[in-house]
Amino acid sequence: MLHISRTFAAYLDEMDQIVVLAPKSLGFDGMAPFTLVAPSGEEIPLSVQHVEDVGETVKYECRFASAFEFGATYWVRSCRGEETDVQIGAVVRTPAFDDRFFYDGPLGVEYSKEQAVFRVWAPTATAVNVKLVHPHLGEVHCVPLERGERGVWSAAVPGDWERARYTYIACINRVWREAVDPYATAVSINGEFGVVIDWEKTKLAPPSSPLPPLCSPTDAIIYELSIRDFTSHPDSGAVHKGKYLGLAETNTSGPNGTATGLSYVKELGVTHVQLMPFTDFAGVDERDPQAAYNWGYNPLHLYAPEGSYATDPADPYARIIELKQAIRTLHESGLRVVMDAVYNHVYDREQSPLERLVPGYYFRYDAYGQPANGTGVGNDIASERRMARRWIVDSVVFWAKEYGIDGFRFDLMGVHDIETMKAVRDALDAIDPSILVYGEGWDLPTPLPPEQKATMANAKQLPRFAYFNDRFRDAVKGSTFHLPDRGFALGNPGGREQVKLAIAGSLRALGGLFCHPRQSINYVECHDNHTFWDKMEAANHDEPEWLRRKRQKLATAIVLLAQGIPFLHSGQEFYRTKGGDGNSYRSPDAVNQLDWERKSRYEDDVCYVQGLIALRRAHGAFRLATEAEVLRHFTFLEPLLPSVIAYRLHDVAVYGPWEDIIVVHHNEEKETAIALPDEREWAVVCDGQRCGTTPFGQARGMLRLDGVGTWVLVQPAG
Fold it and tell me: What's the average model confidence in pLDDT over 158-165?
């Protein structure tokens, strides 16, 4: 049954409240008595507490004294004998519902050769079946599930059901709804079914060597890439272009023999690869993956990998094993893997398994009873509800344990509540405390009290979370949303003080946002909005290309040498362009793919960024972990021209090979000079053209700045 015709409606909105909505045309008396009829036939008085006219409808708020039995159908009878079933309404969004039905036992499917056990949380359902499609014969079996404690339905189905496709069919408010298991860890093509698999068959040998230790989050250097973009270019040198296996290919090369793919990223020297969404998403037909493009922020199934990146999307094992192979290869290359986690919304609320199995529970609603839209995509996950929180926490734990994920980037993290984020951190700490957790801490208009949101404004409550620092981004680059606006790196000295604050870790003690530098993700470019190069095409179009290249190198140097966690967008180091496309989420490969010819063309500039990364990794003074360390060792040099930012990292021999370090950023092409703090001879390891850990020049007394660029001077320890 897909639809029920009712002359009037009744909803359970609280554990002891039923709201009756009756058309005025029915002629009910304003205080007409109603009776609640229990499944047993018992008649329970309903006390009308409030009556309100709502257009052509009369709303009756009624109370009753008996306990409501979920999993069975109640009826409301009018004084004239008309009846309607009691639909489960807003009660699902009450704390009492959470307390009554929170469940912490197993969910999903559990496989053995002897049987498959299915468990699904559907507390408002009156019946649930599992529909099984036989893996070889194609026969369809419908098996009733038994209701257990706290609204969990389960059944043990005898036999070997490996590769069987399955869905749940639940009767809720007298309507049958079919849904994929929200805990499905394997899915069929396009995510149309969950699939029963034998996880033992997905196990791989562990990496040949352990990952290098990560002592502090500030030791991380994050490199964001899309699995598809990374190798889809004709010159990528990869065999499996745009696939998990393409990500895992080594020793690939492109134009003029330039290193590409994973081997290149390893050479670059970053520590973490952040992969754009690879959980199952909508927007790309897995039967014809090349027909459309999508970044992946259309989540369907948050426990299963995307199929368009697999060599055979129709084989549920292929995507799992190939993703695991890619992650293992990254680990063998010394690289940690960060998962771009999109738990703030779903692609289609009404069709999502969450909504179909427990309508109204998993999503936020506004004061008018309408779905919230703080995310801007039509729905907001209510992470503060206990089973929604569990669904998120269980998912990150699954990815960390089963796939070896080393970090999680939470998309629109500010939509989530603080308690859920704390639960995520606690659960990951039990696995590996070095797992990174960070996200977008924007304050979006979702109906959650401001003090409960996991926003940057509440960073003090989440000291072990990092946030994308948009103040850093805009101070260095200029406004992301007003293309002509120039930041410091683009030649504007006006935001110099904001850049200084950002370079020092954006610390609260200095007037910034964060308790510690490890909370600041420092970046000037990511997958969103225009690339830095495309921004300059608009803001600095009057300047020649060679000068714009110097400006982009300056911006990247500011990112890599600042206190905090540096973040690079793949291709940023060779001036990635999307042809001016500022929102390429579904633009074609020609726009989004990494252009390896540009990498070959700008090889010297890539080497410069490689040198900056080596410099950061060589000395812990660039990676101070706490506010106290920054306040102790970090000092700005003053007074200086508005075009210059200079600072000193002093008494830092305990962190690396140099006792003192001076960093200078200059944003004008006009030559100038600055006084050095004492008469000692300083070794130059970085200027506007070269960068690394080996000195190639000296300076004493004054440092000449011959244009836009970054200079780093050092004093050897001892």
Answer: 98
